[in-house]
Design a protein that fits this description.
Blueprint (H helix, E strand, L loop, with lengths): L3 H37 L7 H23 L3 H21 L3
Keywords: Membrane, Transmembrane, Transmembrane helix
């Protein structure tokens, strides 16, 4: 793709990675709240490692999304790609294993 087609494709990719980033942030908040509520009520929660992994992934995704939103070309593409990779890693290691 060149010209306007490449710009539209990258804009779409950044939009999708933005939605994924927002979802990851909401998921991290949910896991942290679940840990807090579980601990305060005497129930086991997801654990500190899981909470830390979700928060770290959310921070990395937000930084990568910011790069994707404020840069152009290959840098923006890599920023969006990092969002997808980090989200996949946290889902794979914390939810599917």
């Amino acid at each position: 793709m060149t010209g306007a087609g490449a710009g539209a494709g990258l804009r779409f990719l950044r939009g999708i990675s933005g939605v994924v980033t927002a979802g990851l942030v909401v998921l991290a908040i949910g896991v942290a709240v679940t840990q807090y509520l579980g601990h305060s009520r005497g129930f086991p929660g997801p654990g500190g490692l899981s909470v830390g992994a979700h928060i770290a992934a959310a921070v990395v995704a937000v930084v990568a999304q910011r790069i994707a939103d404020h840069r152009r070309g290959f840098s923006a593409f890599v920023g969006a790609l990092v969002v997808f990779v980090v989200t996949g890693l946290v889902l794979w290691t914390q939810w599917w294993q």
